[in-house]
Amino acid sequence: MSPASFTKHYAEPERAAGAVRHYRWLTAHAKPLRQPALHAAGPRFLTFERIEGRPVRPEDLPRMAELLGHAHGAAWASDLHSASLDTPHHFEDGTQFDDYLGPREVALRRRHEQGYLPNKTALHAMLGLLQATAEGPCAFYKDSNPRNFIITAQDIVAVDTDDLSLAPLGYDLAKLVATLHLTYGPLTDQAVTTALLAYNSAARRYDARLGTTDRGQLDSFLGLHAVLTAPYVGRNGYHYSLPLRFTHRGAS
């Protein structure tokens, strides 16, 4: 009998090919992340090993933060130490690995057009926040929401490689904190601080420069995620909302 499997279908071949490329990059450069085996890849589908377990819950945040710290540290040491947050990186086949600034500037402008930013002043504040956070060593962003990891009896398994781009250290941890809030309600300040300490401790094992994300930086990332995730409130299990803040570090 063949192992149990899960097949994900794609409307566009480019999306399926991108997910495979992301999967293989993570396998090569973010070794602390366990992923399900990829059994087959077609033009519009991917078939993976089926993993039994549950999504991430708030009590898993310290373990998840430590895992992300190790994954980001390993990826920096393996490939991203030469990357820049404002310049697209490239996979081995020459295709583009999106930079941090460009796609998010486009997304913030779209949120303004959609009405999630009330005026151009708010838009310019968020663009300023984005620019202010584009500093330090590069990590990667894989959309770390609670559904994109499976907690098993023995392990944590990362699933869904549809999204992958460059990001500052701590940005994807902030995505997890933000989406846990959206799913389960506000986390305590102590829980967030404890997670950040675990993340920094793990990342620092790969280079001393990697374990320096402070709470102000994390809060700035949360401010960006509040705007970028606003259209999904009320969908995908997101029952709560994040407060929108239109100031950035250094502003009153």
Automatic annotation (TrEMBL):
Which residues belong to any copy of the Aminoglycoside phosphotransferase domain? 12-197
Q: Tell me one Pfam family matched here.
A: APH
Protein name from the UniProt record: Phosphotransferase
Task: Give the originating organism.
Answer: Streptomyces olivaceus
